[in-house]
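Protein modeling request. Please complete all fields; requests missing the sequence field cannot be processed.
Requester role: graduate student
Desired output: 3D structure, token encoding
Chains: 1
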Amino acid sequence: MSIEYDRLTIYEASSLLRSGEISAVELTRACLERIRQVEPRVHALVTVTEEMALSQAQKADRLIAAGDADPLTGIPALIKDNICTRGVRTTCSSKMLENFVPPYDATVVERLGQRGAVIVGKTNMDEFAMGSSTENSALFVTNNPWDLSRVPGGSSGGSAAAVAAGEAFYALGSDTGGSIRQPAGFCNVTGLKPTYGRVSRYGLVAFASSLDQIGPLTRDVTDCALVLSAIAGYDTRDSTSIPYPTPDYPSCLVADISGLTIGVPKEYFVQGMQAEVEQAVRAAISKLEELGAKVEWEVSLPHTPYALAAYYIIAPSEASANLARYDGVKYGFSYRDAGSMWEAMEKTRQHGFGPEVKRRIMLGTYALSAGYYDAWYVKAQKVRTLLRQEFDQAFARFDALVTPTSPSVPFKIGEKTDDPLQMYLSDVFTIPVNIAGLPAISIPAGFAAGLPAVAKAKAGLPIGMQLIGKPFAEDTLLKIAHAYQQATDWHKKRPEV
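Delivered output (497 residues):
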């Protein structure tokens, strides 16, 4: 019997490895062959680490033979290209870091290595994680495997597209305002943004330090739980890491959600969102109700409409400070043909950063400037406090909140590039979660087939549902998401690339 490697989950592949039906080297070669087959159409990977991956796979086979295997041992994975990998380029899909090779691994990469994981490559992204479509990459645009003329979402678009296309079993992404969940929704995979402080940010190239969080993109919730168990936990090298107990996430996956209370915030079903998205998500919520959850359909989070404005002051402000380090002196791109130090720095940043990064640096620098700091940045932080308090009040009543992941299906490449505001609205449902530091997961909830805009897509285009939880309640979110996936098969559908 031939094995369709590109359709296996982590736990299915792990079972085959432990039984001796396949080896980690065979599994890795199958992924590398799949990459060769689909990359010319999907363009999800910045770097393929074939030699390193095969070496790691040989080591994994020895661990399995010795009986020291973990569920992730020998399983090929991908890493978003803003997460540091020792000896492997980490570009942030920017000319500024096009040839940067870190001398150390990020904590999450270290932890995967300790589990015997196999890293087959680094994934494309919006430059410095600033974008919602992966069109802002300075290297190339990634295509959505469900319709190659459409975006995969962003900024972790390469990670989501690669998992959907079967190029690896899972990928790590980062989420500052929806950058794991929105592409997960667009590519019909499962994407989790953990609580701020749950997963170490050591080795993550900073965009907005109070918002960034690393998380997994996987084919289903069980895989998501396995990866989160590997990467979560306290890290002394990250000053924002929180020493909070880490549950055994896979053991939390039971199909019974009877008695759990779920709220449906009315502010997340906004005028202008695509009708099929609303219909699919409301049908998915009804399914949760059928499974025994107690659903309240008209919850109000009245400060939600202010989240987008607050985010686009806080995030660019932090980006402005974080990206000041790219001055052409220490590392990265350096403009050499200049008459003075100041001209060299100016030209380095002019030629090294792309348009969206420059836009956000300017927004942030303006918001932090004398005379505007109180009017903009301080006010945005006050809105952040109100949003957090509002979520706290909601979670005094509910175990989780449920919303659409995005107001639309994946849009055409180039459709929104000339209208930054429309692009920013792609993350309107995901941004409040980052502002409040909460965990949230996006899971497949259906396909839009009837919209005229998606008529050419063979199976329709994916629709994601977002579950939002209390701080450090990833176990509850995984339990609800798992119960939904046990009762549906949206997550089992694969694109024909």
